[in-house]
Design goal:
This is CASP-like protein. Keywords: Cell membrane, Membrane, Transmembrane, Transmembrane helix. Homodimer and heterodimers. It is a single chain. The chain is an all-alpha fold. The protein has one domain. It has four helices and no strands. α2 runs antiparallel to α3.
Length: 193
Amino acid sequence: MSNPDGDSSPKVHVEPPPVEASAPRAAASGGIGGILRRWKREDLMKRGSLALRGIALLFSLISFVIIASNKHGDWREFDKYEEYRYLLAIAILSCLYTGAQAFRQIQELSTAKQFLQPRMAAMVDFFGDQIMAYLLISSASSAIPITNRMREGADNIFTDSSASAISLSIFAFFCLAVSALISGYKLSTQPYI
């Protein structure tokens, strides 16, 4: 066997790999798959935000009930201490805010209609969650020192109730802080801001 070039080495014919006909379909399904993943992510964020606000509502409501019923006579009444009155006021505000937000989100999920414009809803969610989270941690941190001082003198049902209300306010803060992170992400992905 001789080659036309005069070279005696054999020529090896290498064929390019066949182009699969499914490559264009894979690219097209990646676009649709990306859209579906985005919808699932947005739905997960909506439901997660609703769940976090619902849990924050529950914690705030229980904290409100505990601190409001913390009256045991003499010096063991919450309304004699401004720190506990502040804790109660913020627990009430947190209940109102998270209740209104949860109601709005449930209505939007069930009817598929926006109560507010998307831009306004994103801003209300973000700023409302942040303000309420900061108020919750502020009220809890103001009530902790007086509760610790009282517990040094006497550990009784009044201080235990106060500590549990403070703990629930802190848990509500964590829920709203995570909800604020989700709201911040939703606000940052708005195309028209």
